[in-house]
Amino acid sequence: MQERFKDQLDLHIYTTDSPEATAYSLKGSTNIFINQQWVPLDIATSKEKMADYLNNILSETI
Q1: What is the reported pTM?
Q2: What whole-number distance in Å separates Cα of residue 56 and Cα of residue 44?
Q3: Which end of the chain, N or C, is more open, meaning fewer C-beta atoms within 10 Å of its C-beta?
Q4: Rounded Cα gap, residues 35 and 58, in angstroms
Q5: Which pairing describes strands 32-34 and 37-39: parallel, antiparallel, or unpaired?
Q6: 3 vs 20: CA distance, rounded Å
Q7: C-alpha–C-alpha distance, residues 33 and 30, integer Å
Q8: 49: closest CA among 12, 1, 2, 3?
Q9: In this structure, what are the phi and psi dihedrals at residue 38, rounded to the nearest 5 degrees?
């Protein structure tokens, strides 16, 4: 997704035991947040759904 959205997306990857994750009750190993909002797993694990989701969010912020 970083390649596709280039400068529109600032990607950070953290483990569930990182200080950044302590504010959240994470139950699984795949957790995606965009602007501190949790992304549903079916979207997070689908390349097409995630692209649509990001396009929607980015179009709202422009």
Answers
A1: 0.70
A2: 14
A3: C
A4: 11
A5: antiparallel
A6: 24
A7: 10
A8: 1
A9: -65, 135
Position 46 scores a pLDDT of 94
Q: What is the predicted pLDDT for the residue at 30?
A: 80
- What stretches of the chain show up as alpha helix (H) in DSSP? 2-5, 41-44, 47-61
The tokens 């990001």 sit on which residue? 54
Both tokens of residue 8?
A: 């529109």
- From residue 55, give the alpha-carbon distance in Å to each of 9, 11, 28, 37, 47: 11, 15, 25, 16, 12
Residue 49 tokens read as: 């759904």
CA distance 55 to 62: 11
pLDDT in tens, 17-51: 889 888 888 877 788 888 888 899 899 899 999 99
